[in-house]
Write a structure and sequence with these properties.
The chain is α+β, with helices and mostly antiparallel strands and 202 residues long. It has a single domain, classed as Roll (Nuclear Transport Factor 2, Chain: A). The chain has seven helices and five strands; from the N terminus they run H-H-H-H-H-H-E-E-E-E-E-H. A five-stranded antiparallel β-sheet has the order 1-2-3-4-5. Helix 5 (64-72) crosses helix 6. The radius of gyration is 19 Å and the shape is globular.
Length: 202
């Protein structure tokens, strides 16, 4: 740390930044770890702590602020800092619930990653994968990722070519037109509360 403080700008930043990990390597490692935990729990006939699994293994590789700003679109700039923070909290809760539900329905699936098509200095990439499903066509799951001070982060997920984030744009815009930013925050909060009641945690 003392050496880093003594170095000018870019050099100090390089020392302080985390070691670079390829985005496809990061996602493959995360997926393999999550699926290994699920398989082991199924084999041992024990319930998986889905909430903890998502929070500790999946959430750290997602940029929820950028995901929220994309979903809210131009209305993001109209929101105050406090409103933006509230939107991120509520949208994060909604997305985490979506992932948790998907993991609860895990059926020993296998995910394969395609070769990464990116230059060494690219700061935004598409990590492509697909899920093999018995009796059905493979399902594509692609991750839009960006490199930053804390490493590579996912800012959108496309399942079967459909963007998870963009899916919410129209409904979010309609909520803002009807009731403003606070109306959208309330809509998300109400939806999360309803989901929490309807889907018991594992």
């Amino acid at each position: 740390m003392l050496v880093a403080l003594a170095l000018p700008g870019a050099q100090a930043q390089q020392l302080l930044a985390p070691a670079s990990v390829r985005p496809d390597t990061l996602m493959r490692a995360m997926t393999e770890e999550v699926f290994a935990i699920l398989r082991n729990d199924v084999a041992a006939a024990r319930p998986t702590d889905i909430a903890r699994l998502v929070e500790t293994r999946i959430v750290p590789v997602f940029d929820f602020q950028r995901m929220t700003s994309i979903a809210v679109a131009q209305n993001w700039r109209l929101a105050s800092a406090e409103q933006q923070a509230a939107l991120v909290v509520q949208f994060r809760t909604l997305l985490v619930r979506t992932y948790s539900h998907a993991l609860e329905n895990y059926r020993d699936q296998e995910i394969s990653y395609r070769p990464l098509r990116a230059a060494a200095d690219d700061t935004e990439v598409l990590v492509r994968s697909f899920v093999r499903r018995p009796g059905a066509e493979p399902l594509s799951i692609d991750y839009e990722m960006a490199d930053g001070l804390t490493g590579w982060k996912v800012y959108d997920v496309k399942v079967g070519g459909v963007s998870l984030v963009m899916t919410y744009r129209d409904s979010f815009a309609a909520a803002v037109r009807a009731d403003g930013i606070d109306g959208l925050i309330k809509l998300l909060s109400d939806r999360n509360r309803l989901n929490e009641t309807a889907v018991p945690s594992t």
